[in-house]
Write a structure and sequence with these properties.
By secondary structure, the protein is an all-beta fold. The protein has strands at about 15, 25, 30-35, 35, 45, 55, 60-65, 65-70, 80, 100, 110, 120-125, 130-140, 145-155, 155, 160-165, 170-185, 185-195, 200-210. The chain folds into two domains: about 15-60, no CATH class; about 65-210, Jelly Rolls, CATH 2.60.120.260.
């Protein structure tokens, strides 16, 4: 790892002119004030494809890469998210109605919980390379029975129902649920994570390009 650039506190984009074509790079950031430094952010992975530089706004998630469930778009109920109850039950990270708590998973800082059927979260994403993708959902539940979710891209269901069962292992006993063969075209999209059933937690989702 090497330091690339110091930017102003209000910066929302960063361009790296040193990248090469058809490579994958990892970036992370920290805030610095009077010699004090915050924790490093999670690593964001960017694949350059056939371009010479990668440029994404701070609130756009690159694909392939990992999207923290709690890092949905800024905005109002019904626009950036839909939650069936008022207030953040978990009391962590954000001040809107989505229920977020400190996670007990081995990786990540927060998870979305207290999920009810029909709730959803939306994300701005940039698919860097067209192709077939595996999508991994990091989920947990203390309740037995089948849970379901699905993903929409610009309003189109791209996964169908993703069903899983945790065996009621616990709210913080996470497991990977994986689907493969999801075809994506390069470009900028609005991704929606839809909870079709209730009573599970989600930490993150990860997109991996298949060879």
């Amino acid at each position: 790892w090497r330091l690339l650039k110091l930017v102003n506190a209000n910066a929302t984009t960063f361009s790296d002119a040193t990248v090469q074509k058809n490579k994958t790079y990892g970036y992370y950031v920290a805030a610095v004030n009077s010699g004090k430094k915050s924790r490093w952010s999670n690593i964001v992975t960017v694949s350059t494809g056939s371009t010479n530089a990668a440029q994404l706004s701070a609130d756009t998630h690159p694909i392939p890469g990992r999207i923290e469930a709690e890092d949905y778009r800024e905005g109002k109920e019904g626009e950036a998210y839909h939650d069936t109850t008022r207030g953040n039950t978990g009391g962590a990270y954000r001040s809107d109605d989505v229920d977020i708590q400190k996670t007990g998973d081995t990786d990540g800082d927060y998870n979305v919980g207290w999920i009810a059927a029909g709730e959803w979260l939306s994300y701005d994403v940039q698919v860097m390379n067209s192709g077939s993708y595996t999508i991994i959902f990091r989920v947990a539940s203390a309740q037995k029975g089948t849970k379901r979710l699905h993903l929409e891209l610009n309003g189109e269901d791209i996964t169908g129902p993703v069903s899983f069962s945790t065996g009621g292992r616990g709210w913080q006993r996470y497991q990977d649920v994986e689907i493969s063969g999801v075809q994506l075209e390069s470009g900028r999209y609005r991704l929606k994570l839809v909870m079709d059933t209730s009573a599970f937690n989600i930490n993150y989702l990860r997109f991996v390009r298949e060879e």
